[in-house]
# Entry
Amino acid sequence: MNRVAIAGVGLIGGSFALGLRKAGFLGELTGISSPSTIQAAIARGVITRGTTLEEAAASADVIYLAQPIDQILRTLERLGPIAHSGCLITDAGSTKSLIDAKANECLRFATFLGGHPLAGKEQRGVEHADGDLFRHRPYVLTPSSKPSAIAEQLRKWLTQMGASIVDMTPQHHDKTVALTSHLPQLLSTTLAISLAHSGEDSVTRIFGPGLIDMTRLALSTPDLWTSILETNRPSVLEALRLFQNELSQVVTLFESGDITQLFATAADFSRKIRKA
# Structure
């Protein structure tokens, strides 16, 4: 693995590049993005130069797709007939089933290995890229083809970056992140909307740090999340219905005056994920 091209040199793509460098990668890192992003990425030392998708398809060992999901799908269509047989294409999309299906449909010669780093920030852009962003974070891989030497090299580099690799099927991944990522995003957004519609001006002045924590995800970029949620609709609806059912039970228990067990169950789960 000597030549890596990154399509979408933003927070995730830039962090992948910086993480590779920090782990000791000495090969060429090129980027496929807008001219202004390429210029900023070169200035930060994230990549060595800009390139085109066609050039990357002909010469790169790995093409890393760190774009919004709808753009990843379009890029896979473009790469399908032109990516060479020794090339590994991987992605960092937040949902996997549609991406995996598109890769299997379109790629004629190259190998595909789906991926999703469970890491990020509210800020976007290469200026916020961090070589330690993936460290001590789960990095899901969804292998759907035979193992290859180049795929094993990617796994090695991800491990050297400090990521914790987890293999899952695309379907299992999407069902899981609907619960652990997409549901929290929608709950945070809905909480912020509820307070905005409360009619109480004081809610913008009288609050503690807990409200800041719980509405942090409401700052996320709408266009990014629209793409994520639309490509995982069945699993997200299932997660919302689960929460709706639990919330109904909370209302019933609160009406009866006995909510002690709720706190115990919730605290047990919270302690469990903090030890993970």
The longest helix spans residues 170-196. Strands lie at 3-7, 28-32, 49-50, 62-65, 88-91, 111-117, 138-143, 164-167. Residues 7 and 32 are 5 Å apart (CA to CA).
